[in-house]
Amino acid sequence: MPGIRRFGIWAVAIALPTALWAADASAPQEIDTQKSTMTVRVLKSGVFSAFGHEHEISAPIQQGKLSEHDRSVELAVDARKMRVMDKDVSDKDRGDIQETMLSSKVLDTAQFPEIRFHSTAVQNAGEGRWTVQGDLTLHGQTHPVNVEVEGKGGRYHGTANLKQTDFGIKPVVVGGGAVKVKDAVRVEFEIVTKP
């Protein structure tokens, strides 16, 4: 009997870490905010669009988690930390664009400091590819968006297209409409999960 009891203790000692690892593998993984990036691209239009600027905006991910097992993802961006990265403008112009973007004319970050995404459905689109449907909360409004994702092993990249007007944001117009930004914007991201 002592031998059987000892064997039982060893079996539990071996099986318990395996069970815990399996449970942990299905748990959501935190997004590594230091290694993950999100970029918003705003394009120009209008008669004199050649004189306007296309904007590249860094939108650092504040927090988030994802699970391939549960097919879910959620993340948050601090809109106040979004930065205009345009390289073909002066520091002064970049500062003016930044101020306009954060002001009540566009994002109104004083009133709506956070942007959130929460997945509602994930469809397999091939090996290592998914179409993620979810709710995006931006500028105080929540609307569904589709996100195309590729990746594996804790590294994922993808894109989403959305319209500013869907979220109550009026695209910026200058020169009486001769130069303006397009309503549609493109979001690109690289997400890395913590080990």
Describe the structure.
A hairpin with a 4-residue loop joins β11 (173-174) and β12. The protein is of the alpha+beta class and 195 residues long. The protein has one domain (27-192): Lipid/polyisoprenoid-binding, YceI-like (Lipocalin), CATH 2.40.128. Helix content is 19%, strand content 46%. The model is unreliable at 2-25, 46-51 and 175-179 (pLDDT under 50).
Layout of SSEs?
Layout: H1 2-26, E1 29-30, E2 37-45, E3 55-58, E4 61-67, E5 72-78, E6 83-84, H2 91-102, E7 114-124, E8 129-138, E9 141-152, E10 155-163, E11 173-174, E12 179-192
Antiparallel strand pairs: 1-4, 2-3, 2-12, 3-6, 4-5, 5-7, 7-8, 8-9, 9-10, 10-12, 11-12
Tell me the series of helices and strands, N- to C-terminal: HEEEEEEHEEEEEE
* Average of the residue pLDDT scores: 82
CATH topology term: Lipocalin
Give me the secondary-structure category. alpha+beta
Intertermini distance: 42 Å
Principal-axis shape: globular
Instruction: Supply the CATH class.
Output: Mainly Beta
What attributes does this structure have?
single chain; 195 residues; alpha+beta; Lipocalin; 12-stranded antiparallel β-sheet; 2 helices; 19% helix; disordered N terminus
